[in-house]
């Protein structure tokens, strides 16, 4: 069962979310953070959240600022805003009496999940899937317009047929974000999941995150998967692994 919800972002505009609710009583709750310009209905987010709900773990997935059904402008966001809005999502769950114990991030969302977890007292375990070791890795996606952005303040950027506005503050915030030091101070169990054949974010990123983490830490190779987990059964497999790993922390 899925319920549509809305809650205010850290900047004010409402964010659109979906609660994937278990058929029976939930054995725990979690938040799933999507990738860079993806959304709550991207294959990885949708299928993993649904798979976890089927395993008895209720999940909240949401569209970040200016994406999907959320209000606001994407260009007003940043890595810091993505972290802040992940905290807001956790607060929304807590306010309805279901505080999250599990935080899952896919791709860029994995980096945000590591940083956000340290501000969410109820979170007991963190999972990253195909996460970059440094948030600034995403700059290669918009490097063709970044010089213009830095010179003029804004520039249009085409992503998958959509035109977004990239802003100087966004670029500067991403360049200043640090992750590895935050991994070392996470102070929560961490499961790092990554495909050895990921052509978007190389497996070297997973190695760097894993080395920086302290125990308890775990690594699972998502063999046969692509970065977006679109291959048949891969997202569902990831959900089953997460469910089993997280059992003792729920």
TrEMBL record:
A molecular function (GO) term: carboxylic ester hydrolase activity
Record's protein name: Osmotically inducible protein OsmC
Pfam family, one: Abhydrolase_1
Domain AB hydrolase-1: from-to ranges: 31-142
PANTHER family to which the protein is assigned, alphabetical: ESTERASE ESTD
SUPFAM superfamilies (alphabetical): alpha/beta-Hydrolases
Transmembrane domains' residue ranges: none
């Amino acid at each position: 069962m899925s319920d549509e919800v809305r809650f205010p972002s850290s900047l004010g505009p409402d964010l659109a979310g979906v609660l994937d609710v278990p058929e029976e009583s939930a054995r725990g709750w979690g938040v799933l953070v999507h990738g860079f310009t993806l959304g709550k209905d991207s294959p990885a987010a949708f299928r993993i959240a649904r798979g976890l709900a089927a395993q008895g773990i209720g999940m909240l997935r949401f569209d970040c600022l200016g994406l999907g059904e959320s209000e606001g402008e994407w260009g007003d966001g940043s890595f810091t805003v993505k972290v802040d809005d992940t905290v807001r999502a956790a607060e929304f769950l807590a306010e309805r009496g279901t505080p999250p114990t599990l935080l899952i991030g896919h791709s860029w969302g994995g980096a945000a999940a590591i940083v956000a977890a340290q501000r969410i007292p109820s979170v007991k375990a963190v999972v990253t899937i195909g996460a970059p070791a440094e948030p600034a890795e995403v700059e290669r996606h918009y490097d063709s317009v970044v010089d213009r952005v830095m010179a003029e303040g804004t520039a249009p950027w085409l992503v998958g047929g959509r035109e977004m506005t990239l802003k100087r503050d966004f670029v500067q915030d991403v360049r200043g974000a640090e992750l590895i030091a935050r991994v070392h101070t996470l102070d929560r169990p961490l499961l790092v999941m990554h495909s050895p054949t990921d052509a978007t974010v190389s497996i070297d990123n997973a190695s760097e995150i894993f080395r920086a983490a302290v125990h308890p830490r775990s690594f699972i190779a998502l063999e046969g998967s692509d970065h977006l987990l679109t291959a048949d059964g891969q997202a569902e497999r990831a959900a089953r692994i997460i469910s089993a790993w997280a059992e003792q922390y729920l």
